[in-house]
Design brief:
The chain contains 11 helices and 11 strands. By secondary structure, the chain is α/β, with parallel strands linked by helices. It has a single domain, classed as TIM Barrel (Alpha-Beta Barrel), CATH 3.20.20. Helix 6 links the parallel strand 3 and strand 4. It is globular, with a radius of gyration of 19 Å.
Length: 294
Amino acid sequence: MLKIALTHDIDRIEKTYQFISKPLKFIRNGEFNNSIKSLKSFIQKDNYWKIDDIINIEEKYGVKSTFFILNESIKFNVLKPSTFVLAYGRYSIYNPRLVDTIKWLDKNGWEIGVHGSYNSYKDKDLLQKEKETLEDIVGHEIIGIRQHHLNLNDQTWKIQNELGFKYDSSYGSNMYCGFLNNQFNPFYPKNTNILVIPQVIMDICLMRNQNYIEEITKCLDLAEDNDAIVVVNFHNDKFNTADYPFYRDAYIEIIEQGKSRNARFKTLKEFNEEIRYSQLDIEELEVGGLVRMV
């Protein structure tokens, strides 16, 4: 039976420099109608919040998901231009609206996980602080994590394991959809008790395909043939239809295709528990050949 885990990385909750960068990108690509739509967002509210929209979609279809909450602390360094996107537009995890929403989701059947900040994959103290901060908000232990940008090195799973995480979903590609290295099944990195549940579909990877519906069908077929879990990652800001045409439609397409196949939709926490309490033999894999060094 097909299994699907819907997830959302909450990278940003407000639109900032994208008020300029998005229209310019559309113009460069000759997409003038989309550029005008994006410019109109100056007068709109909640451009990148979109968590309420996600809730409404999932309630309509009777599914629940996992929200990975980012607590980014990196600062802009003029000598490292790449830090601009990471630093500018980051939000406070103590934003009152966000705190209320996290608590509401947690109490109503959605799962809250840690979206480890950009450098936390190699910094145990930083990741511990992020975990404890989110636990203070929800009032209980957080067991799940996905690292920002899917950052991993040969120590990340060891760090996560020592901090008490039960599963990680950072193993996957941010370039294409599918099962990285044909790793269809969850696994334990050697000498840890953390279950790695691979990510399969990320929004930006999916929408690089001209025919995203065909790509979705391909991924679901592959998962069904290999009794694998399709872990889907759609960022909340991608539900802004002006800046990201058809992304919202693609998310709904995944759910509808899954429903038409009688897929089982569960949060990652629920799949983690199911796998751990099953009689299945879970692989224990050496870390070295699995991770790309950041």
